[in-house]
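Cross-check.
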Amino acid sequence: MTKTKKLPYYIADTGHFGIKIKVCFSDVAFQQAVRDSKITTRHNALDVGLAESHFIEQEGTTNAMLAIVFNYEEMAKETSLERMGVIYHEVSHTVTHVFEYIGEEDTKIGDESRSYLGEHIFKQVFSIYATEEDKRERTRERDRAALSKVIKEARGSELQVDQHSNGSAGQNSVSEQPDLSSGAKDSNGSLKS
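Predicted model, tokenized:
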């Protein structure tokens, strides 16, 4: 069995239009998507804003790439309604890019074709975004649990260090002898000073 390489980005399909959309959450993931698409020209993502839609065709080749890139950290600061609006906005641009890819003029695309394709892509990208949110939340929970375990272990070892038994090395390394009473006993066995 061959191990498949885990990609740093997600892939959404465009149905019968035949080009995949790479959904990225960082410039690092975007750069890998560019390399995987055999694009050799230089491109950057997330220079400004919460998200971007990209359509890259390399001149003189058949290499092309569609991508939506989200700045996850900045998106997380927005309300869920605002995030959904950003996703819709980028999907709308991507729909236009799909028609550019197949060589159709934007004005010749029917409203129904555009709407169905937009719905198809939106459902996938929305699901991808939710998956990324879940993945990051699980990572945060694991990190918190690991930190909590380290803190508990550190506290436990502090307690053990602080507990000294009689005769053990502590601040005073000379063990103290028990008090010896001095004096004589009277006829009742009581001490007399």
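The chain has a mean pLDDT of 85. The longest strand covers residues 51-57. Passed to J.P. for a second look.
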